[in-house]
Amino acid sequence: MQAQVLGEPASMNLDPLHLTDAPNPIPGPRDLLLRVSACGVCRTDLQLCEGDLPAHVLPVIPGHQAVGRVAELGVEVEGWEVGDRAGVGWLAEACGRCESCRRGLENLCEQVRFTGWDRNGGYATAMCVRADYALPIPTVSSDVEVAPLLCGGVIGYRALKVSGIEPGARLGLYGFGASALLSIQVALHWGCEVFVVTRSEQERSRALEMGAVWAGGYGEKPPVGLHAAVTFAPVGSVVVAALSALERGGVVAVNAVHLDEIPAFPYEYLWWERQIRSVANFTRSDAHEFLDLAARLPIRTVVDRYSLSEANRALSHVKSGQVTGAAVLEMVSG
């Protein structure tokens, strides 16, 4: 197989990923071996490659939005067949025994492991995934179109749930990248009034075209109070801006695995039972719910395509904001 391997984190200026030829991985008893056809490129991958997220194992193959076909089954696997279409998300496995897992919160398991961080991921033409964590993929979209749904889509869906937004209520989206592009479609389906705050004039125009009732820059405040907000930008000051725009009792859901320091802010922003909540990963139940909803609506994705050999370039474009939708690597068999 071919794979983009991270040996040591470094600035994207130094191209930290190296294209390597390697034997196909051997599936364990509970694993599927996938022939990967597409893998989304996430800002979390960028943070791992540049060292903002401390590495768990090195070398490692990043990528946690992979779509492919089952090529081989582990000896204990049931419910899958060779040739089935499968997706791989950020959640690689949880213990299934701890209090969090028993409560249906496997995303909070202390022994949780992640694709592309703890296990080799989808920046490769083949990969292994635990069969019970692989995701059946609806047939309505191509592999390249589905890939962004497996992280930005699912985690955005969980962020909406964590925010407590109700149908018809006023929702703020702070940042309008790949995940927000998917989240707004769900929110509008729920009948929410959506207010978008983002730095890019192009993104503000796109938000209005997609159905937002208002769009402004980070220095602007929505014209009415928000019942809930989701922040996508990995910047602490954006969390404070969202908090300051909430109605009483509102929630800011912080959709980020890494965030710089939240600056000091007046207590009055938090007073009247406003809340700040982090969004940590997602559960398999979230993924199944969202993928079913995405197929029924259907959710539309905007994709910037790159070859596997262009992984460093794709990540650099994510960093600089040159990606118009979601960056996706398309694989060549090997």
Give me a quick take on this structure.
This protein is of the alpha/beta class. The chain contains nine helices and 17 strands. It is globular.
Form type? globular
The fraction of residues in strands falls at 25-35%
Protein structure class? alpha/beta
* Rg value: 19 Å
- Distinct helical segment count: 9
Which architecture name of the largest domain does CATH use? Alpha-Beta Complex
Residue runs with pLDDT of under 50 for 5 or more positions? none
| SSE arrangement, N to C | EEEHEEEHEEEHHEHEHEEHEEHEHE
| Major β-sheet annotation | 7 strands, mixed
- Average pLDDT metric: 95
| Separation of the first and last Cα atoms | 5 Å
Helical residues, percent: 10-25%
The CATH homologous superfamily of the largest domain corresponds to Medium-chain alcohol dehydrogenases, catalytic domain
Q: How many domains?
A: 2
CATH class of the largest domain, please? Answer: Alpha Beta
DSSP strand tally = 17
Under CATH, the topology of the largest domain can be stated as Quinone Oxidoreductase, Chain A, domain 1
